[in-house]
Each structure stands twice: as C-alpha cells, then as structure tokens.
Amino acid sequence: MKKINYKETLEIVCRLYVFFFLTFYGFAKIIGAQFYMPGSIPSEIETMPIGQVPDFDLAWVFMGRSFGYMIFIGISEMIGAVLLLFNKTKLIGTLILIPIMVNIIVFDIFFLDKYGALASATIYLLMLLTILLINKGIIIKVINTLTRFDSNSKTPIKEKLIK
To answer: Which of 93, 100, 116, 129 has the fewest CB atoms lying closer than 10 Å?
Structure first.
C-alpha cells in the first residue's frame, strides 16, 4: 500500500480550490456579472446623492465603471488560477495571485460591510501562502541561484536549479 504524502495532498487541494473559485470570479468579471456596470446600477443607488451612497454600493459602482479594468483583473485572476494547475507553473500562478488577493482583502476591509467576501479572500490567500510554504525549498534554491553573483561560473542557471 502506498504511503499518503500529506503535504502533496494539501498542496493539490489548495491549488484546485483556489483555481475553481478564482476562475469563477475572473469569469464573472469578464462577463460583467460582478460589479454594478452602467445600466445595471440599482435605481435607489442611481438617484441617491453621492455622499449618501453606502460604501459597498459606491465601491461596486466604481469598480464597474471601467470595463477595461474588470477585464484586466478577471484575466489576471484566470491566468494565475490556470497556472496553478501545472507543477511547472504553480509558483508563478501563486505569485501572480497573491498581490491580487491582498488587494481584494484591503478593498473588502475598507469598503464592504459584509464579511463573507473578506473571509473567502482571506482563505484563498492563506491557501496560496500554504503553497509557497510547502515549496519553500524550491523558492530558497531559486532565490539563492538568482542572487549568487559568480562571474567565473559557466554553469547555466537551469543546471544550478536542478542540482
């Protein structure tokens, strides 16, 4: 019977969980289903003086104002999520998604009055950090290789990383 590698299993669970949800949210942004876009702003918000608009609604209107920004964030989320699916690109995907998740968390803290989205974003960030922690040996090796200034060495960086 094969022994279960719990770190590997945890990493795969984290990668698939984040992939599923961030692909969903990225797609929702691309099709314009997440924020209040022009023409989809609730009528009670549309007629309210701007100083009286609740933070959540103001943030949702602001984010929905630029379709280009929504496309950029949605595609970035989806690219990072897809990169999580492959062993060779999982760390690149993680490094793309961490700043996005930090931005979402800060946004949620300051603008949202409901904390479900903040809790979800925090879980995704913790899962991404778990992926980094599980792969810390690889990350340390890459950082050491990239910051080593050996001008006499003729060994390609790729060979140094494999050792």
So the answer is: 116
53 phi and psi angles, rounded to 5 deg: -70, 125
Q: Which amino acid is at 138?
A: I
Quick check: 151 pLDDT over 80?
no
Mean pLDDT of 70-78: 94
CB-based contact 42:36 (threshold 8 Å):
yes
- In 3D space, the residue among 134, 107, 105, 109 whose CA is nearest the CA of residue 122 turns out to be 105
Whether 153 has a pLDDT exceeding 70, the answer reads: no
Instruction: Give the residue from 121, 120, 115, 114 showing the smallest Cα distance to 98.
Output: 121
- Distance separating the N- and C-terminal Cα atoms of the chain: 31
pTM over 0.85: no
Q: Which residues have CB under 8 Å from 85's CB, separation 6+?
A: 15, 19, 93
Q: Kindly indicate the confidence band of residue 106, based on its pLDDT and cuts at 50, 70 and 90.
A: very high
